[in-house]
């Protein structure tokens, strides 16, 4: 009879520990959603090439007057998303360390993690909430871009 009491107590302790462990984990089924939107208000069609470790990973075409939105849902364990993932790959699995923005195949501008202090750097644009971001390419961006002098790619 004493062994039966010990076994029941043992199972109660195990059950208590299991319930405690599972009640401390993040709530499943409520992933964080990240939404990023690019606007093109310049008078040029734009091609954005994302690079990771100097290798081209993604190309985004953004016609003048248009916008593009990408939404990512984080899973468990959470890792978070940033603009770097938007430019790195369509599925958000690769993050870009730099981008080359080409305007009408005539002018270009390169941004990277190294020039994070440039307030026009599209890799680092966030609203108040890090889960949502917007960036607008303007005519000023086009005017400040470098001439391609032949080929922009």
Automatic annotation (TrEMBL):
PROSITE patterns: PROKAR_LIPOPROTEIN. It comes from the Bacteria. This is Lipoprotein. It comes from Pseudotamlana carrageenivorans.
